[in-house]
Amino acid sequence: MNGAPPTIYDVAAIAGVSIASVSRVLNGTGSPRADTRDRVLRAVAELGFVPDGAARALSVKLKETVGVVYRRVPKANPGGVFAEEDENLQFADIINRGIEVAAQRSGFSLLISSVAAEDADAGRRMLGLARKCDGLIVHDLVLDAGQLDRLGRHLPVVNLAGITTPHTASVRGDSETGMRDLIRHLIRDHGYRTLGYLAGVADSPDNVTRRAVVQAEARAGGAELAGGPGWQGSYYADGGAQVIDGLLGSGRPLPRAIVCANDLAALGALHRLARRGVDVPGEVAVTGFDDIPVARRLRPGLTTVRQPIKELGATAFELLESLVRHGPPEPRDVVLPTRLIRRESCGCTVAAARASRPAD
Amino acid sequence: MNGAPPTIYDVAAIAGVSIASVSRVLNGTGSPRADTRDRVLRAVAELGFVPDGAARALSVKLKETVGVVYRRVPKANPGGVFAEEDENLQFADIINRGIEVAAQRSGFSLLISSVAAEDADAGRRMLGLARKCDGLIVHDLVLDAGQLDRLGRHLPVVNLAGITTPHTASVRGDSETGMRDLIRHLIRDHGYRTLGYLAGVADSPDNVTRRAVVQAEARAGGAELAGGPGWQGSYYADGGAQVIDGLLGSGRPLPRAIVCANDLAALGALHRLARRGVDVPGEVAVTGFDDIPVARRLRPGLTTVRQPIKELGATAFELLESLVRHGPPEPRDVVLPTRLIRRESCGCTVAAARASRPAD
DNA sequence: CTGAAAGCGCTTACAG
DNA sequence: CTGAAAGCGCTTACAG
What we know:
2 copies of one chain form a homodimer.
Chain A: H1 8-15, H2 19-27, H3 34-47, H4 53-60, E1 65-72, H5 90-105, E2 109-116, H6 122-130, E3 135-138, H7 145-152, E4 157-159, E5 169-173, H8 175-189, E6 194-198, H9 205-221, E7 224-226, H10 237-250, E8 257-260, H11 263-275, E9 285-287, E10 304-306, H12 309-326, E11 333-336, E12 339-341, H13 350-356
Parallel strand pairs in A: 1-2, 1-3, 3-4, 4-5, 5-11, 6-7, 6-8, 8-9
Antiparallel strand pairs in A: 10-12
Chain A binds a DNA duplex through helix 2 and helix 4.
């Protein structure tokens, strides 16, 4: 940290060669003589030279950096049981790890930026990010289809919301199959005749899809599906807890099984049911979606649909890299498989649940 | 995404002004005439112009980007109960969020990079990172004191390992006070006479400190402290579980309380004790350190020491920014307060535990 | 207030 | 194989 960091000119001077030669040996281009190579490498070591990324990026028109935007959770109820927001971000964190590992394989770095849900100038923050990277990966619940597409006209964008637009690519988990298998398990294997769908953010594509599948499968299986505004959650634990409070307060009986839009909603529901003395799964079964790590730590263990979380991230990066390097990949919209994970919250015994799934 | 993105020259041409003027209105420097301002802004909007970050960085010699390096977890035992590594990274993820929020306030972006524990060319990866940012924040367990200091001679570095070196700054939680309060609680309030310290990575500064405090407080309180190689864990759940297996296999009685180096080790220990039918806290008490979100979801709720995780990250950023902008801050090595969080795994009743801590 | 021009630190045709 | 030079897209003294 003494003075300005050395530049390629300093290296060239010490090595007694031109900056072009320094650049070549450092990048492994051309075929420098062994002697040249040695002198450059020695000078580099002596100075502790590290080439400046900005200068290189400017020159090659590639920053080898991908921006990731995810949604920070709205402030939970002050004093609520779930004031701790960080648990809520597990899903995003694991996706980001998937992106990062894939990016690292390609020599790209990850520029991470969260936007608060209430953040008015989220748009500006995203532009600030955009100038520093080659393309953007945008998580669910950050931008709507219109905003995404507009952004996609300016730079490569892939969204993790499963939104298909003309100028972006997308990745999502297969909600249809996962949810279908789950509902059939509840109706056929457990014989439940009444269900409720504890919804996520109303207009999120995943929520729309999952609700539709629950409806269709309930009808096909001859089960009754409770609904209405009282079932509107938020994808977060607080929302799940509030729905349970409302349901219990309404005086109407609970359905036999509550199908939550995701694991966090289920976590909130489970917590509140336990506190109000409702036995899960004895009186009411509860299920989630995602299979975030905490799902297996809950008591009872949470029956859910596993998404390939890390792979969602890795795939998003691969789509983006392709977009950056060669333009729109084929296919532009990718759906990754999901699978039912039976634990105990659906009513399965420990033994049955364990036998049905891989060790965890 | 049609053709090359617009540059400041394009904007200037459309607006009918010089690129200097465009630069000025975009950066709010000088005092451009209202007319000039309008024309520039109109042209910017028309083109969807976003200034290139690399060019700006090269020019002003500031990337407004901070690199963060954290340690990816070694592969867990294949087929082990804790094959899922992501839970292990909660602590790092929350720190990173703290960094990010603080960085955002200063207009900095976060460049995230993990290194695998076994990764041979971690050094190279870190240099790759270094060229893209103004300084580095290095998590615990990534580099040793010598490596950190060497790195710190080339660019601003702050470490989250609590390691004090001549050329880096550091942040850590106050392990001394937190651990002292915890041990006193176990000995005085619960009357436990035998303890064991389930260690973390042997040469990690935090582990060294925590072990020393446990020893000192046990001695002072007249309690017996079990030790030996059988107590060596890893900071991860797997390590905690293995220590329990070894202990149970040895045939010797367990101490009345097992003090774990961190929450993850406690999680592993708790899991294994439950599986082997040992009652916690009835037969043996178990405690953690950190208070990661899952701690409150465990049954029994985990008694632990809360670290201000996000603040650790935010403080690390603030130190780094100061290092980047003005050179070494004062003080260069910061210690943040911790506090005992009583739940049930230490033997407290739900009521007593709840009364002793803030709602959660 | 505004513009012409130099400079930031690299990479890469182009000659030799 | 190697070097001189142009160029990447900005910012910022310096004149005017």
